Amino acid sequence: MPFSRFTVSLSEPQHNKLKEIAKEKEVSLVQIVCEACEHYTNNGAGSHQFGAHTETDSKYFPNLEKQLQTKDQQIERLQSALDQSQQFQALTENRYQAEHQQLAEIKGRSFLQRLKAVLVANP
User: Fewest CB atoms within 10 A around its CB: which of 1, 43, 76, 85?
Assistant: First the structure.
């Protein structure tokens, strides 16, 4: 059977990984690429599409979905706590402004008016 040649460009990490696999299997890098092509063509392109999930992947999906639900619940609780904190901050700010306004009104009075206001408020 005649063979055809072609050039493949790989990222350095991919190339290094394939070299490691070839070394472990004690075959050439070319043989590893040929085996990958053989596997791809024998099993059909549909089973190796980008983003296709393997059986191993499907084992992890339930756990990942559970973790995602847990994280969603945590985010909701944190959002609720943040909302409560912001409400408390707004109430505190309103109280501070009211007290500041009362203090400003008291400072604008004469000494006798202030003394009378203190005595009336604290019998």
Answer: 1
